[in-house]
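Memo to structure team: turn this sequence into structure tokens by end of day. - J.P.
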Amino acid sequence: PDNLLGSLISDEQFDKVNSYIAIGASEGAELVYDGELGANDGGFFVTPKIFDGVASEMTIAREEIFGPVMAVIAVDDDEQAINVANDTDYGLQASVFTRDITRAHRIARRLEAGTVSVNCYSEGDNTTPFGGFKQSGFGGREKSIYAYDQYVEKKTVWIDLS
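Reply from structure team:
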């Protein structure tokens, strides 16, 4: 299919994403890309949106929207980018785009996110843990051996048998 973007999960999420789009515009962000909606066979489709001129205190920069909305915050250097990225209550996913692998490692180490992708957006893998930092996720990890941790209580018992 030509379409790689499906619909949102529910009318509630559809309304929530559209309210964030309206809030972004009302707070002064500039909508620089608004995708076209093709033939709609039903469902809760939202076209991709890109907002520029976003300030880090704006709602669309501070909330997890869970829809096809990008908020672009201009920065001057790596340090400012890291500070902006970490200045949030959430930390599910981050992406770094660079040709310099040393720079990618340095930035990835400092980002407060459960998953950091370099030069891509990670779809994940069942062998790697998935979950967020801060208020993202439920506090545990899904997928991989680490997913079992949410179902067990670990205990260590030391006994001197001498």
